[in-house]
Amino acid sequence: MSVQAYVLVQTAVGRAVEVSERIRTLPGVRVARDVTGPYDVVVEVEADTMDDLGRLVVAQVQQVPGITRTVTCPVVNL
């Protein structure tokens, strides 16, 4: 069974579209959508294990230029 999560992303001003387009290309990313509100991009990710999920978020998503902050929300009930 895989692990899923939502990653809430804040970006530098004016960078949301660029950030979401880049995030969409990462393996493990199911959906990345630009939104309004306190976050600029909401990302749905999936990985084999919680460790793999952590590596995906820290080593790939958070490294996208233009991101200022992320909050990861693991799905607890599929």
From TrEMBL:
It comes from the Bacteria. Coiled coil: none annotated. Signal peptide: none annotated. Residues 7-76 form the Transcription regulator AsnC/Lrp ligand binding domain. This is AsnC family protein.
